[in-house]
Amino acid sequence: MADYEIADLSLADAGRNKINWNEGDMPVLLGIRERFRKERPLKGLRISVCLHITAKTAALMRTLAAGGAEVVLVASNPLSTQDDVAASLVMHDEIPVYGVRGESLDTFRSHINVALDVKPHVLCDDGADLTSALLQRGLNAGVMPMGATEETTAGVKRFKAMEAQGVLPFPVIAVNQSLTKHMFDNRYGTGQSAIDGIIRATNLLLAGRTIVVAGYGWCGRGVAARAAGLGALVVVTEVDPVKALEAAMDGYRVMPMLDAVRIADIIVAVTGNRTVVGPEHLAELKDGCVLANAGHFNVEVDVAALEALAVRIEQPRTHVTSYVHADGRKFHLLGEGRLVNLVAGEGHPPAVMDMSFANQALASEMLARNASTMAKIVHTLPQSFDTMIASIKLQAMGIRYDVLTTEQDTYLHSWQEGT
Ligand SMILES: NC(=O)c1ccc[n+]([C@@H]2O[C@H](COP(=O)([O-])OP(=O)(O)OC[C@H]3O[C@@H](n4cnc5c(N)ncnc54)[C@H](O)[C@@H]3O)[C@@H](O)[C@H]2O)c1
Questions:
Q1: Atom 41, ligand 1: which residue's CA is nearest?
Q2: pTM above the 0.70 mark?
Q3: Atom of ligand 1 nearest to the CA of 155
Q4: By C-alpha distance, which of 340, 265, 341, 276 is closest to 303?
Q5: Domain 189-343: homologous superfamily in CATH
């Protein structure tokens, strides 16, 4: 059996059921797995994967292993690990896994170190934690990975910062930037699963309640749309005038956070930024407000400020921490301010992770074949991959669509013919 540090091996069979159920809605990734099994494009590569340890990630791990890679999985968040899935990967797939739901930050960091100590050829990052830790260790050219892939918006920002500062040591493929990733995972995945996490944690009725969505990017659009669909009154806060205008024309009220906190029943921060709900907002926050974060890192809601103003802290339900202010107001923080969809729910539905992880698998294959000739910058996958992934997904969904006639194709590539 593989090396591991997980919660409980006896959960393995429950985990296998969960993984198999999720794979039932991941036809694109399973198709790639079949090809990988025949072609073995990742043979001889060690890939260290730092992702949320969920059933969907397990499907990716099985796919990378089918491609011939030696894989290690470590948690990308201390609170998102599904312990049954971790157990199943160790027991039934012989994949080394390091992650325990609720692990301390020290343990989390020690697992990141395990992923680097195996001297991986490829890093599969989520939030750039592996690469950031590698750079902070000091680089050793002898054991330099050939490249990395990045799963999320927050990580792409960090990789772009490394590129701008000239410290990016290898090519990085920003999987998040593929259309078949962010248009579906960030929008429909976060849209559904963040609302699902809030409901699982609180059992609140959203209809008629005011929900404030901070950030109207790919994730924010999804969260706002799904909240509106459940009858909530949606308010959007933004710092980008174009996105603020888009939110207004999509039919939502737009206002500064300082105004929004006075009417908010629920706030969901999904900006990728820090201190979106900070001390000045807490001073004005409506009694009973529920605070949730769906952005990658746990810095969007200022938890330290919440703690500082509390005269009492209560735990009324799993995943709900209530902070009682001296003036009697009570605020409810979900999932310790970490990703609400993964802490209080199961994360994104497999139907969207199918496409995200199809992109991940193809990105690893691209590095395996081309890393030595790729510039040490942040790359995106070719658009032809999006077309292929979307076509397979549509086919699996039983949806047919039109194709251009030769006449139409010629017209679209010409300039002579007008009115
Ligand atoms: N919960 C999940 O499972 C999940 C999934 C995908 C991405 N993410 C994370 O969610 C975050 C957002 O991702 P995205 O793809 O929507 O990014 P995005 O860049 O498309 O959108 C972020 C938006 O937030 C706005 N913003 C920044 N600072 C703000 C502030 N102080 N107040 C209000 N708005 C502000 C930006 O202008 C931008 O429009 C990232 O951290 C990303 O990694 C989470």
A1: 272
A2: yes
A3: 43
A4: 276
A5: NAD(P)-binding Rossmann-like Domain (3.40.50.720)
